[in-house]
Input
Amino acid sequence: MIEKFSTGIEGLDQLTDGGFLRGSAYIVQGPPGAGKTILANQFCYAHVRAGGRAIYMTLLAESSSRMLAYVSQMGFFEGSALPDAMQYISGYGVLEREGLPGLLKLVQHELKRHRASAMVLDGTFVAQSVASEQEFRAFIHALQGVAGMADAVLVMLTHQNRDSSCPEHTMVDGWIEMSDETHGFRAYRTIQVRKHRGAAILPGKHRVRITEQGIAVFPRAESALQAAPAARAEDHRVASGHAGLDTLLNGGLPAGSATLLVGPTGAGKTTLGLHYLSLCNAQEPGLMLGFYETPAHLLQKARSIGLDLDTPVNQGHLEIQWLPPAENIVDELVQDVVNRTRARKVKRVFVDGLVAIRDSLVIRNRLPYVIHALSMQLGAIGASAVYTSEIPELELDQARMPSDELSAMVDNVLLLNTGRRANAFRRYLSVIKLRDSDFDPRTHEFHVNASGIAFGPDPRAATCAEAG
Amino acid sequence: MLRVLLVEDEPDVSLVAATVLEEAGYHVTVASDGYEGLEIALQEMPELIVTDFMMPCLSGLEMIERLRLADYDRPIILTTAIPEDHLPRQPGYDAYLAKPYGTRALLALVEAFRMQQGR
Output
C-alpha cells in the first residue's frame, strides 16, 4: 500500500481519502486569490512537522521572500523549519536560461540535494509559456517520473483554467481545482478534487475558508457525514421536557431521533425547545444552536416561563451557541455541532432556526440532505436532535403538514399552529409523525403561561373572547 | 568605483537591488545562484558581496564557506527571509539583512562597508 502524506488540511485529507500519495504528482489549479499558495505552504509545513523535508520552488518572477513574509504570519508557519527542513528557492532563472530541460534537472538536483520528500512547483503555467504543447507534455511526464523516483510528492500550482481534456491532467496522479465564485452579492471559495488515483474521493465542490490558521476545507455535510455509521445506539425514549407532550408521544421522543418542530412565527417552537433543554444535566448534556435570539435573551425568556436554563448553563451541562443568521458556511457549522456533540457526549441538541441555515446555503435545496446527514451523525453519537422550521401561517382547519422534503428527512414532526378564534389568538399542537411508534393524533390547543407550555385554552383568551 | 557582486535567485529582487546600487554609483555584477556567484567572485574578486541564503544549486552559506576557504576576505552581506537566530552557526558573513528589505536599508549597509574600506 502506498504511503499517504497528510495535506495538513483536515478537510482536504477527507476529500482525498487521507492525503497525497508518496511518489506522486499533483496539479492544483485555480485563479489568483483562490488559496493555492496557502494550501501548498500548509502542506509543506505539515509535511515537515511529520518529519519530512520540503522545497517550495517558484517559477514566478515575483519574490518568494515577500510571500514567505506573509506566510510567516499564519498559524501553520514554523520558523525553525527554515532552512534545513523547508527551503524556498527560485527556478525562474534556470527556466529562463535553460528552458524545461534545465528546470527538470534542477528539480531533480534539488530534491536529491535537500533529501526532500515533498516539493511545490509554483507557477507551472510559466513553464508552459516557454515551450510548445508537446514539450510541456513531455516535461509533465518527466516530472511525474522524477517524483516517483525520488519517492516524493510533487505539487504543481497553476492559475490556468485548463479543463479535463488537457493532457497534463491525464498524466498526473491527482488534480485539485480551487475557485473563487460569486452568487449574487456573495463571494465564496470552493475546492474540488477532480482526480486522485488510488483513492475514494469525496466528489463535487466543497467550501473553503481562509483564516489566520491557514486554509480550512469543509466537505459537504451530505457527502462527508453519510459515511458515518447509521446505527442508532439506543431504543429508549427521551423526555421532551413537557409531561403532557410525552403522553401524546407515548413516552417521549425516540432516543437518537430527529424531531422537527414546524409552524408559523409565534406558535411556540422555541418555547418547546427550551422545555426540551430544561432537562439538561450531567447525564444528558445539551447543546443549542440559535441564530436569532442571543443566549442572554433566551435565558431571560426561559426564566419568564418558569424554566431554569441558568443552572445547566452555569454547571456546564448546557452550551448555547449563537451565530448571526448571515453568511455561515453550513458544512462548517454542521461539523462544529457534530464535534461539540461528540466532545461533550451531548444527548440533547436543539437547533433553533433551519431557515437561517437554509439561507446560508448557496444551493438552498441542499437543506433536507444536510439536516438528514447531521441527524444521522448525531443519532450515531447517541444524541437526539430537535429542530425548528418556520412556515407561513396555516389554515386553522387544515392541520396538515405542507408538502416539504424536509419532513421526510426527519423521524418525528410536530406541527405547532396558530389561529384566531372567538376573537382570540390560539395555539395548537399536532403530532404528525413519530418514528416507529403510535402517537396521539389529535390536535391539542395549548397556551404559554408563567410555568411554560400548558395544554388547554388560555383562560385569558376565554375572558377576552367573552368580553368581545 | 566599488565593485559589488549580487548573488540572488529571485529575479525581481535582483533587478531592483542591482538598479539601486548602480544608480548609487556602484559597479554591480549579478549571479543567480551560488555556483555562479562563486565562480564570478573568485574570478573578479569584488570588494563586496551581497548574497541571498536560500538558492538553488549552492546556498548562500555554502558559497560563503567555499569563498572563505579560498581566502576571499572581503565583506559579505547575507540577505534572507530566515530570522537570524534560525541561521546555522557558521557565520562567515559580515552583516545580515532581513528579507524583504527596503532599498534604503540595502544602500545604507553597502555604504557603511564602502566607508569602512576607505573608498
Notes: Chain A has a mean pLDDT of 90. The CA atoms of residues 39 and 215 of chain A lie 6 Å apart. The interface with chain B takes residues 57, 61-66, 68-69, 72, 79-80, 82-84, 87-94, 96-97, 106, 109-110 of chain A (CB under 8 Å). DSSP finds 17 helices and 22 strands in chain A.
